[in-house]
Amino acid sequence: MKNALTAKPLNQAQSMVLEVVKNHDNEQDLKELREILLDFSNRKMQEQLDNIVAEKKYTSADFENMLKGHDRSQH
Fold first, then answer.
1. How far separated are the first and last CA of the chain, in Å rounded?
2. Cα–Cα distance between 4 and 59 in angstroms, integer?
3. Cβ proximity of 20 and 33 under 8 Å
4. Alpha-carbon distance 52 to 4, whole Å?
5. Beta carbons within 8 Å of 18's beta carbon, 6+ residues apart
6. Handedness of CA 6, 11, 14, 18 (dihedral sign)
């Protein structure tokens, strides 16, 4: 784990988020900010997934096979 003294400096977006949190510390504002950040993160993950599916040319049948396949481990 990196020491705080050797960690990379914050980028502009990280600094902006910290500034918003510092200036808006009531629970409703923080809840709204969390929702915005989660929405952003979810959209980016979905875009990445969509790109992978398109790149690998997966079909619905491929996903069905993955779900039913023998490669899945039994718990």
1. 32
2. 46
3. yes
4. 35
5. 10
6. positive
